User: Which sequence fits this backbone?
């Protein structure tokens, strides 16, 4: 039995993959409405749209504005009722273990068949956790630097998280204020709050802190 009338976001920066996935899954979820985001910022804009409720996010770990696990951490912190399934070309046990540790409801390798995608989505929407067969999860050490930064990152508001992403892109306060439609003073206030929550002193340190959650830099030991 498949869940019906779902609103699902595909968050991946490759339009061909998003289109192929949507087209392949539509027959199995005929009443589903599909939404697409090609960056962490586009995903946040969808979530900010109060007129729409979502049932699931299919999230790529590596897309513009998303430093490894940072967007997953943000989603689980601020949208705890919204399940997230990671879709990734990285299929190793360490990546999968970290994704589950940060609250993913499932992990689907991009190499998986459409039948597997359909089954995984169905299982998660029925309240289960879905993992690739044969995966042995690794133990996560909660005392390392990346874990501490994950906890700090979860304290940022959605707007503060967007500003931090823009810091990472190298945008100036004036550019960020223009893009977000607010004053430079508001951006400076956000910056102060971000520095305080992350325990850093400036933009450079804030970006370095965010980069601790890049997939290749996360340490499980």
Assistant:
């Amino acid at each position: 039995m498949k869940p019906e009338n779902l609103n699902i976001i595909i968050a991946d920066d490759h339009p061909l993959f998003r289109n192929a996935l949507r087209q392949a899954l539509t027959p199995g979820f005929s009443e589903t409405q599909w939404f697409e985001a090609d960056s962490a910022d586009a995903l946040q804009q969808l979530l900010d749209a109060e007129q729409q409720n979502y049932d699931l996010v299919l999230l790529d770990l590596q897309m513009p504005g998303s430093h490894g696990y940072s967007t997953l951490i943000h989603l689980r912190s601020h949208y705890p009722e919204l399940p997230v399934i990671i879709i990734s070309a990285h299929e190793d046990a360490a990546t999968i273990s970290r994704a589950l540790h940060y609250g993913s409801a499932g992990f689907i390798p991009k190499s998986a068949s459409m039948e597997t995608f359909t089954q995984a989505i169905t299982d998660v929407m029925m309240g289960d956790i879905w993992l690739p067969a044969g995966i042995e999860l690794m133990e996560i050490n909660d005392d390392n630097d990346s874990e501490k930064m994950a906890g700090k990152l979860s304290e940022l508001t959605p707007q503060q998280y967007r500003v931090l992403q823009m810091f990472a892109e190298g945008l100036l306060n004036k550019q960020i204020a223009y893009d977000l439609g607010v004053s430079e003073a508001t951006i400076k206030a956000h910056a102060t709050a971000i520095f305080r929550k992350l325990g850093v002193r400036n933009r450079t340190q804030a970006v370095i802190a965010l980069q601790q959650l890049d997939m290749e830099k996360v340490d499980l030991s």
Remarks:
- The CA atoms of residues 175 and 218 lie 30 Å apart.
- The chain has two domains: 7-125, 145-211.
